Amino acid sequence: MSNRINYEKVRPDNIKVMFEMEKLLANNTIDKELQELIKIRVSQINGCAFCLNMHTDDTRKIGIDEKRIYLLNAWDDTDIYNDKEKAALELAESVTLISERKVPDTLYDKVRAYYSEEEYTDLIFIIGQINTWNRISISMGNKA
């Protein structure tokens, strides 16, 4: 890994807060497998090789079927994901591309049909967190 700036050294408190958030998110209402799939999908959209590499490895460690990883780019054209997972992945795409898509009421309603208020909020924080990590990694020149 070749960073432009050693941001962990320059601003250790910032990274500490990011890792504290990771601990909170690890113990939320969304199952670990879906969390990892969301992290991979968002990282694909953002083009973050560092995060793609890390989260693909993480999915393998927890035993996710390889097909579920390979088909993430085409999640809406396969039956390997259930409707609940597809709703979460669609939300992840809309939040990641928020300047282009927003989160329309129809999508909110679709997601809320499967997820409680607490779960919806957890999804938003998972999506926001991986978007933040992607932007840090890309901006700082992290390599896979």
From TrEMBL:
Gene3D superfamilies: AhpD-like
Organism superkingdom: Bacteria
InterPro entries: AhpD-like, AhpD_core, CMD-like
Position of the signal peptide: none
GO molecular function, one term: peroxiredoxin activity
Domain Carboxymuconolactone decarboxylase-like: 22-93
SUPFAM superfamilies assigned to the protein according to its UniProt record, in alphabetical order: AhpD-like
PANTHER family cross-referenced by the UniProt entry: 4-CARBOXYMUCONOLACTONE DECARBOXYLASE FAMILY PROTEIN (AFU_ORTHOLOGUE AFUA_6G11590), CYTOPLASMIC PROTEIN
NCBIfam families (alphabetical): ahpD_dom
Protein name: Carboxymuconolactone decarboxylase family protein
Organism: Staphylococcus pettenkoferi
